[in-house]
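Summary for the funding panel

The consortium committed to producing paired sequence-structure records for every protein in the target list. Below we show the first two records in order, beginning with the earlier of the two.
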Amino acid sequence: MLLLLAEYLEQFHSVFNVFQYLTFRGILGVLTSLVFAFVFGPIMIRKLSYYQIGQAIRDDGPKSHLSKSGTPTMGGALILGSIIISTLLWADVRNRYVWVVLLVTLAFGVVGWVDDYRKVVEKNPRGLPARWKLFWQSIAGAIAALYLYYSGVSPVETELIVPFFKDVSIGLGWFFVVLTFFVIVGTSNAVNLTDGLDGLAILPTVLVGGALGVFAYLSGNIKFAEYLHIPYLPGAGELVVISAALVGAGIGFLWFNTYPAQVFMGDVGALSLGATLGVMAVIVRQEIVLFIMGGVFVMETVSVILQVASFKLTGKRIFRMAPIHHHFELKGWAEPKIIVRFWIITVILVLVGLSTLKLR
């Protein structure tokens, strides 16, 4: 919104032209969401504690988690608020990609909020039944996929880009809708599965989100896109502001979520953040790179799938407990060790993902 005001004020003074630069608005986006999280974080934690909106801990999990019972949850609403406000302030609200990402983020956040509300406020241990949670996620993911397919203005917007190979792309046609659906819904649930230890999910989300912002900036600039042999996507650069807002909001939340956590993000945060990563990766045509950079999310999801499949087929478990971070807990690893090591793995994988820009 402030970009529109700056464009109007340019006629009176050229200093307002600085708001045309994506990098400048990206910096403002980081700072705005970060300050928002720092200011309203303590207020939200106090309110959640006052209304006893605390996390219920399963007694069949690691015994070290029992002490976390009652820790305020639904803190993901702080992240959502930070991202939305910062984006609306500094992004170009005339850009269709901005609204696609914001609406997907909000839609998945609402699904997560309903699930959290039923669990911690209504004291319903089932929360939102899994089939209904998946149903509403599917509706939001399908609408986004269909919109991106039909609103595309060039063939490259629906092609699958293969990293590490120069000018290798696969025309997807209608399969683009299917792929987009699974990327958005799958990433949303993958981040949710990862959100089981203090700070475990949020920093990888920040790192991957920041890297996707780099891809968005380069893809939205025709000179950089041609030089790096990546698809040129007019308007995609505006996602830099959303990426920056996510980074700022995530770091601000991590201040309160780091071990030992003062607040948990809950499904309202995990589902929405995962969906944000998914839809951004689709827009910048980097689904495969997302799979690489989000390797921790993939590992957590695969561990659950393997555990369930093995138990149903053989009656035996592969891991002591799934997702896999609980397996390491039950092996005796300290929670901070697991968290930091998963962070380190994500840093490495994000660097590998970014290397695909040049290794072609």
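The next record, for a separate protein in the list, is shown here:
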Amino acid sequence: MDIRLHYEKQGSGPPLVLLHGNGEDSSYFARQMEDFSRDFTVYALDTRGHGQSPRGTAPFTISQFAEDLLAFLDSGGLERPDLLGFSDGGNIALTFALRHSERVGRLVLNGANLSPRGVKPSVQIPIVLGYRMASLFPGEKARHNADLLRLMVKEPHIDPAELKQLAMPVLVIVGDRDMIRPDHSRLIAGSIPGAQFVELPGDHFIASKSPEAFNRAVREFFKKTEQNKE
């Protein structure tokens, strides 16, 4: 690992790691940290090149972010935390779980996608155009913007058939007006054995815009699956 990830830590109890979305940082989960820290030791990470985490020299990819997560868990002695990932954070968590399933207790995927085609065209087309424009301009800021947009244009690439190998409890939670296509979210949940699916009123950002409803749904999932978690 060529960098150390910045993180915020709060609470006590079993470890719960929060992974934010593209272009955000750990502050996205302020209302989740406030709530879940009553029962968990909550770690909210800044992904490589986001927030206070440095960019480093390694590739700026979902795959690399998953390996950064492994290095973080190893450095902190976190053997089998629960993971909650939003958007690209969900894609990181899912990629990590597929590679290192023995290191995941439970998995919460909020607005994740298996490929760029999982995003509604009305959202994806402007992202593609923005990426092409950002790629034309010189300068560090333009390169950073292009890096961020590239993640949404080119990644991830997960075969739904791979998801059947996941054996940990999984919750797929989305907004009913999410930017991820509804059939795509249901495909993810339907491809994971025993996965629970929850759709809440709201858009892609339900965790920040409707934290009470979001936190309640996640807590219900944790309560239902507590006996299954060793």
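Regarding this second record: The chain has a mean pLDDT of 96. Residues 138 and 196 are 45 Å apart (CA to CA).
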